[in-house]
Amino acid sequence: MKKIICAAALGAAVLSFASAKNYTGVNAAAIKDVPTATSFTATTTKGLFSTDVDDFISVTDFWGVQPEKFFGYFGYNYNDGHKYNKKDGLGFNFGFARQLKKMYVGAYFGGQLDGMKMTSVFDDASGADEVNYTYEADAKYAYTGSILLGAEKFGVKASLYYNPVGGVGYLQNVKPDSGDESIVQKDTYEFYTDLQLGFNNKYSPFFQIAVDAMTAKYYDNNDGYADKGFADLYLRGGFTQNLKSETEGFSHKVSYNADTRWRITPIVQNQNKDGSDEHLGAANHLIQLSAAYKATVAATDKLTLKAKFALPLQVGLVWDEDYVKPIDGDKTYYTSRNFKTDIGFEPTLTFAATYAVVPGKFQFNCGTKITVGDLGWNIVATQTRDDPTSSSVDSTSTTVAFGFDSSDFATSWDAGFTAFLGKKVTVDASYNILNKLNNNSVDYSSNNDIWEVVKDVFVQKLEFLVTVKL
């Protein structure tokens, strides 16, 4: 009885603690990956299972592809967000690889290239002002390209990602013979360049350096120039260690990653004929250290199970500006400046399974990922200045909030299948019926007849890609 009372009291305390929501999470911008080739097997198993599609352009896994002549695939599952958070309808993707004696070459492209156009604001029919003309870069879709060169001991991969950010790219000129020589130009886009290096040994280490540049510029030769862009510098690395196992059909390993993102903002953000301004001191950085344990069980000849526990530690640094110097004024220090440091843990549990319904012919894939909530600290140090013309800090106060936010608890399901058409062709598909069933999005009300319910359950979007390996 005492144990029951203690458990109830502990549960009440946890619920009370969680509902307080003292901890608000890590406020720094998240780590963003360059999109890459992703199989539906990986998507539907939350990344625990993979195929040659996932491996052929990876600096730590391309050694396992080993095509005798050629490997290639084509699909319509391009994802310009995070690797296993698939979005719909963003474009096709394809890739190929060849083994050239001792060298390996792989290439990948994803996205769409259409949407660029030149528009004139006048024609004979409209009678518009013929001294005006407009160029509009209406690129609506993001795209990614990667190339990998590999040898026996290492691989090097270079990638670029272009995102038009809403299709904004605009230039308007007024011809000189109108008496007005004004020019208006707007540029908004993201350009992400990435370089990775991986090694082929028992730890499979990798290193990565990347720059994610967000351009947001405006120019008007009457009003001046404004720059609200920034660039994120990524320095990342990690390794994996296979652990020993004496149990047949069981294997496990641990992996460790360090991901850092450092934001660089322009000092001059506004400029015109009278001069330029200055902004200094703002920061938005993120340091993420993560450890993960992954286990694989070959339960039967047909059923394989995998599980993963990941524990990322995030440290976010968000600082206010220190001072601003306007175009037509003196340097002014902020009388109140906040330094926000967030430290948070967000553990996740992932489970996945593949079942060979007909071995070598047809396989069912499924997976679920559980985010159990956020635990961490928000630390805010506030500096106060009495004199805005001086950099001297008169006082500093610090507040610390600690808590567990259970509102971030989330679970998601995915399902799909793989069909093997002989030894050379594979069809990999997503048929996400489990998400409907497990997220209670099926209407079982008495207003629906049985056929509407059956349709709601079984009529799901079918996506697939085709792989050829020779």
Question: What does this protein look like?
Answer:
It comes from Treponema porcinum. This is Major surface protein. Residues 1-20 form the signal peptide. The protein is globular, with a radius of gyration of 27 Å. The longest helix has 19 residues, at 2-20. The chain has one domain (40-469). A hairpin with a 3-residue loop joins strand 5 (143-150) and strand 6. It contains 5 helices and 27 strands. The termini are far apart. With 470 residues, it is mainly beta. 9% of the residues lie in helices and 52% in strands.
Topology:
Elements: H1 2-20, H2 40-44, H3 52-55, E1 71-75, E2 92-100, E3 103-111, E4 132-136, E5 143-150, E6 154-163, E7 169-174, E8 183-199, E9 206-220, E10 224-227, E11 230-243, E12 250-264, E13 270-272, E14 275-276, E15 278-280, E16 283-298, E17 303-319, E18 323-325, E19 332-333, E20 336-345, E21 348-358, E22 362-371, E23 374-384, E24 395-405, E25 410-421, E26 425-431, H4 433-438, H5 450-458, E27 462-469
Antiparallel strand pairs: 1-2, 1-27, 2-3, 3-5, 4-7, 5-6, 6-8, 7-8, 8-9, 9-10, 9-11, 10-13, 11-12, 12-16, 13-14, 15-18, 16-17, 17-20, 17-21, 18-19, 20-23, 21-22, 22-25, 23-24, 25-26, 26-27
Name some characteristics of this structure.
16-stranded antiparallel barrel, single chain, mainly beta, globular
Question: What sort of overall outline do the alpha carbons produce when their principal axes are compared?
Answer: globular
| Overall structural domain count | 1
Q: Strand percentage, roughly?
A: over 45%
| Main sheet specs | 16 strands, antiparallel, barrel
Oligomer: single chain
Rg over CA atoms, rounded to whole Å, is 27 Å
